[in-house]
Design goal:
The chain is α/β, with parallel strands linked by helices. The chain contains twelve helices and 15 strands. It has two domains: about 130 residues, Rossmann fold (3-Layer(aba) Sandwich), CATH 3.40.50.10350; about 220 residues, Glycerate kinase, domain 2 (Alpha-Beta Complex), CATH 3.90.1510.10. Helices cover about 35% and strands about 20% of the residues. Belongs to the glycerate kinase type-1 family.
Amino acid sequence: MKILIAPDSYKDALSAREAAKAMARGILKALPDAETHCCPMGDGGEGTLDALLAATGAKRHLTQVQDALGRRREAAWGYQAESRTAFIELAEASGLQHLERQERSALHSTTFGVGELILAALDAGAERLLLTIGGSATNDAGAGMLTALGARLLDAQGQPLAAGGAALADLATLDLSDLDPRLRELTVETAVDVDNPLLGKNGASAVFGPQKGASDADVQTLDAALGHFADLTARQLGDDHRELPGAGAAGGMGFAARAFLGAELRPGITLVMEQVGFDALLDDADLVITGEGQLDGQSLAGKTPVGIARAARAKGVPVVALVGKLGDDWQAAHAEGISAAFALADGPMNLDEALERTPTLLADRAGSLARLLAAWSATR
């Protein structure tokens, strides 16, 4: 039995690499003769950089940047000198995983650190950028990134705006005259893990703002502020990208990447699968085991388990998902190629306990699956 282990990260618990190791450990304990191949994956969120660096051989760099609250931190990014390609993960600079739950502030968090990483890549000679934008703690439509890259966002008194999406309500002048000129020669691909538009009930603020600390009132404030920003951007640039699928990714960073960097927005899991040669790995697999923190109806918009299942279905390879939680409408994933899905919990537990026990629970579920495979094979 050849088993391809290809999970995403389990938010606040395990990286994709750690999750793959836990799965392999459980499988080999139960089925020592199994052939396992670990291929950590990502759909654009935290951990995607590791998968890309492993696949491409790009060199890891560390740069001091601002986090989502303006504090200094060391963020990783990658650079492949031969192709002049930089790999930047938004979550490294402005990720939710760097904040305590009580620190999450959708009104005021900033993508300034992402702009600092782009500047570092330009300084290294990058001509191509692969930007992954999942896992953000931000809802500023990329305004912080633009500021770091030289843009000036001013209020009616000509003063710079405060950091964060809420301040965009006061935007009067969007001055792009000092935007770094090297950006004009930079080809950008942006990996998104959702297809939401920028605004409205399915937009960045309404759907993702609450997990970043936004109250119902905050969501209304942010949606209006981002709408005002989109209006000024459309008038100045002549194009309106607010309805573009993926524009609402990472609190509107998808919108900014397209409008100001000319980026092509692509499903993150598709882009990562291309980089790691996933189709070739499927050719040698009897089963794929994948997973992440939650499987639900929204997973069909571009999350890792469903992207993997679609690719595996085309090759006739079954897929099993081991997930932290089975959310609303998770059964829709069956039609996309997921043969079976199992939640990790083995009894009642609170979130903190579930996060702490994720490595053990993941190994146990993978081991149980391996035993089931062994029992089934013995009857054939």
